[in-house]
Amino acid sequence: MKLLKSTIPKLSIFHIFRSSTKRLLNLDELEIDRLQYSHDVYRTIFDGNFSSPVTECLQKGAKVLDFRCGPGTWACEMSSDFKNSIFYGVESISCFPLQKPLNVEFIKSKTLNDKIPFENNFFDFIFVHSAILWYSSSQWKEIIIPELIRILKPGGYLEIMEAEIKLYGEGPETPILTKHIEKFRASLRSHKVNPYLVLELPKILNSTNQVKDIQKDIRKCPVGVWDYKLGNWGAELVISLILRTLITKKSIRKKDYEDIAKKMMIEVNKVESYFCKHRIWAKKVG
Asked: Which domain of life is it from (predicted)?
């Protein structure tokens, strides 16, 4: 499997740091770089930018939301593929490209923990990705999922792409990896973030009684150079996320990053590690 690199050039961004951000890992330049190349990895393993049956709708012209869009890579690439549609990216801080396609609109909103700033039944398609670090389990259930459904048109699709925070091969054979990913999960739980929330999403969606035809697709993302095509990218995604979060939480020292990362890379190659990425989509009733 060859990495499908984005057709959109690497984005030049204007970044405003907010120390009050609720996300465990701040959206600094390193994190934005990680989000940009994660787009290429996930597009590759799923063989496309979305899984919902919305291609015909997008070709005709639709309103699409990229929720918690980060640097807007997904919205910009989709806008090139579907020029008749309008793409909105919403984020709580300014980390958007300085130049954007004409059919893309970026919105900074401070209300994303309570309310998504769009009217009822506005979007034909909503895509959510890499948002697990933003919200607690109760926020997902009581605020975010209901809000996403509120702004989705009847007959429209909501799609969520998130990972299980678990690596294959955790255990006695990988003591350094296991130690640090357990610290990472403990950090998530201290913020009431559920590392396995993605496993509960179909049940949460179903409990709203507002969506139907809930589907899911689970793909393995290799971690380590044992998979010479994608594994190095997967390892960069995982190891940088874990260690940079632990540095932010002062659980490890910044100067130890490279040494720990090298040891983790040896271990993931030894067990041919991977993690599972999920896409879950559903259609709004009505």
From this structure: Eukaryota
